[in-house]
Amino acid sequence: MGGKKQPRTKNNTQPSSSDRHAQRLGTDQLIGFSALSDLGYVPAPVGGAQDEGSSGAVSGQMRAVLKKMAKKDATTKSKATQEFTELCDSHSLDDVKLALPFWPRLYRKLATDVDNRVREMSHVALQRLLLRVRKAATPHMAELVPVWLCSQNDPYPPAATAARRAFQNVFSVPEKQSGAVKFCYSSVLAYVKEGLYDQTPQTYSDPSVMSVDELEARFVRLLTGCLSGLRELLELLPEDPEDARGASSDQPLADIVTHNKFVKLAKHSHPQVRRWWFCLVSRFCARRPGLVAAAGARLAPAALHALNERDPAVLTDTWDAAICLVTTVPDCWSLVNVRKAVLPQLWTVLREGGRGCAVTLHPLMIVLLSRLPQDAAGDPDELHRLFLSSMYQGLSADRVTQSAREVSVIVRSLLECALYLLRQGCSEPVVAVIVDQLCAVTSDVIAVWRRTPGPALYRDLVRPELEAGRSELPVQLLATVYRLCSRQERSQLALDVTREGHMSMVLELLRLMERSGPAADPELASWAVSDQLHAAVLAAVTATSDSGGDQWQHTLQAIPLLLKDHGKSGPTGALGRS
Predict the structure, then answer these.
(1) Phi then psi for 99, rounded to 5 degrees?
(2) How far apart are CA 256 and CA 261, in angstroms?
(3) Which residues of 368-395 are buried (b: 16+ CB within 10 A; e: fewer)?
(4) pLDDT at 68
């Protein structure tokens, strides 16, 4: 008979006061992943229920937006984040500063959300907020920077761009960026270490509100973010550990690298985790070589045993890391089984033409060849034969034949490695292999080489050898090099060897013309009867005092060929007049 009854609640419990709950949360300092566990609160004025306009109170509009950003619905969070961005500009500076303490925990949640748009908008809002409050955000940077740094290589490109642009706009010069990561050095490493080694898909996210795929995707983003964030940290820190945080600054980094779970990430099932692991190892080699050398027993097998990576998106970074380790760790080869674990994978990748990555992979081959132990295959000749023959077989791979650029890169790499072995004084069997394989390069490959823009073969490979006085090296490869050169390069080659007086190469060019016939190469035929060539031969005859030397023998063998060409073209030229 009385008034209207209040609706009953289960077990007659009373609803809690969100204001009192928010007041308590607002005074806690939550650092680490525990800060992401509960964000369903509305920031209330300090001291209980106060009027909206009282001193120290967050405005009602700002409280409403902050509450919506803590919702589960992605559309609600995205719109609320955009509205918060606008409020940072429209509200007074004092109002924005009052909301600042509640932002770090929200940002850490939004920046790792499963929705791409929410992650992107969180970085836009962060930039707008920090540019407004400036130095007032300093006490909160230790909570913001770890997630911020680890978001700059987000798999969703707009989110990664937004995070990187925000970091560059807030810290506008490299000195400020370096100072920010030095200031937050410990918090970044603590975040990375916890993310890589302590979290799991179930502990990092809530299984009750996410599907299995969402749990896994969010956890993979955590792993790739921590690896890429640590790489960004190394890039921004000074190379000298003493300039970073003191004499012991590298110890937290060493603890991460030497952890048992670190090398296991090189075999992770997700390719992006593997890719960022190898990228991080390469950066460690460049920025902290001493730390890598100390951890070489763990890192070298993980990288060198992975040369046969099947995913093309990971293969290049795997090889980069392997080459960096080989050049950084002094006893690298003693830490792995070269003959059984490394060489079989190397031959496979070479025979398959680099699996679509020849453009980035094959320029590294000359470095690897120079670093391989000579007894890796038991016999140096066998090692060099397998290396060159496997690379030559790669020209026939399906992916390579469909790419003119890859054909060009492999041919160039093959010539570089051949010149290197000749320069090192390889044995006659290896020289025979080099000549046979280069002479076997098909006309189709040569046509592709000539059409492909890039470094000039003669200018970048052969001419430096001539200028260094090593004419005996190119002469063994002259037939193939001449076939690969363009018409302009051929003329330049003939003129240069004439001007420098390399009679061995002059003789080889004349023999080449004799075999093919003057009609097959008009440029070479014109060169053979030129005054410049005849004058060079006469100068060589006059200047050579040792009648038993190679230069004298080459000159004598060249004269009959010159006279034959001279007789066909008429009594002109210095040699005919003499």
Answers:
(1) -85, -15
(2) 9
(3) bbeebeeebbeebbebbbbbbbbbbbbb
(4) 94
Name every residue whose Cβ is closer than 8 Å to that of residue 512 and which is 6 or more positions away in sequence: 478, 479, 482, 524
H/E stretch holding 532 reads helix 531-543
The amino acid occupying position 168 is Q
**Cα Rg of the chain (Å, integer):** 34
CA atoms of 9 and 3, how far apart (whole Å): 18
> Residue 213 to residues 210, 216, 311, 564: CA-CA distances in angstroms?
8, 5, 21, 79
What residue ranges define each of the domains in the chain, with the CATH number in brackets? 28-46+56-237 (1.25.10), 259-333 (no CATH), 337-454 (no CATH), 459-578 (no CATH)
Q: Are 576 and 566 in contact (CB under 8 A)?
A: yes
CA atoms of 89 and 85, how far apart (whole Å): 7
Per DSSP, the residues of 324-360 read HHHHHSTTGGGGS-IIIIIHHHHHHHHHTTTTT-HHH
pLDDT of residue 52: 44
Eight-class DSSP state of 461: I
Q: pTM higher than 0.70, yes or no?
A: yes
Phi-psi region of 268 (alpha: psi -120 to 50; beta: other; left: phi over 0): beta
pLDDT at 409 > cutoff 80: yes
SS3 237: coil
Give, in order, the Cα–Cα distances in Å from 522 to each of 263, 364, 535, 559.
Answer: 61, 38, 20, 20
Query: Residue 135 has which token pair?
Result: 């130095």
